[in-house]
Design brief:
single chain, 3 domains, four-stranded mixed beta sheet, 47% helix
Amino acid sequence: MTDLQRILDAEATHPGGEPRIRVGVSACLLGENVRHNGGHKRSPFVTEALSRYVRFEPVCPEMGIGLGVPREAIRLEGSPQAPRAVGTRTPGLDVTAQLESYAAAQARRLQDISGYVFKSKSPSCGVERVKVYDANGVPSASARGLFAAGLMRRMPLLPVEEEGRLNDPALRENFIERLFAYRRWQDLLADGVTAAGLVGFHTRHKLMLLAHSREGLTALGRLVARIAEAYGREFMAALSKPAPRGRHADVLQHLQGYLKKHLSGEDRRELAELIEAYRQGRVPLIVPVTLLRHHFRRYPDPYVDKQLYLTWAPADLGLWNRV
């Protein structure tokens, strides 16, 4: 089995048992022969160490836009603020627009990756110090590779690094730390950000933030406090409005939806009739609530179990016997 096959066939979890993080990578760094000369730039750290903890998404933008192997090399020419990618022997070969379009397409395809390792000095993938040639064919400035620039512009929070810089222990440590931290941030967003969730996320990262920037930790603490305070105001303002019968009935119907795969036709009809009877004022709220509690004891649901709606009212106060 080749290095590339081993990496791409890796288990979904790493040796520690946690899910592997998806990371984009310049395909040549995995040992793929996609360079303009038919070679590769295999990175031992990427293929041997990092691959144990991540699932790579290899990309070669030059191959992706239809350039073959071997092919004419390209380079950046013109203004360093807006360079163009042209052929080194054939000035009429201009793939600037193609690389920009490909970056846009890959940003959509790879929107859930948590980091990217680029090939350094590449006119398509270099993150910094890529040579830009003037009209006389002399390298006179530097810029970012066009594919890397397009991807980073569309994914501004994404941790990125070049393979050469990963040979520096401090830069390597910083990139891996950002990689795992960004994955945790993505998980928070996927679960739905709440004030409590954001406070918990910030609390877990306090010492990490302190190690990097005391000023940043202070600023983030103030931001989280303001968000939590604003949430508290809106939370209590929302609860200050008495819940009308129709809204309660809507919530009861929403809860009924979590039981549709479990209840018989007769049980579904009974529950629907009680909810409608409550909506019309013929029975108090406690009647459909009691039946829902009974069904959820028989068929627990993880989401409903976390909700307070069915259980917050102290039974001995009889609150729902009269509304």
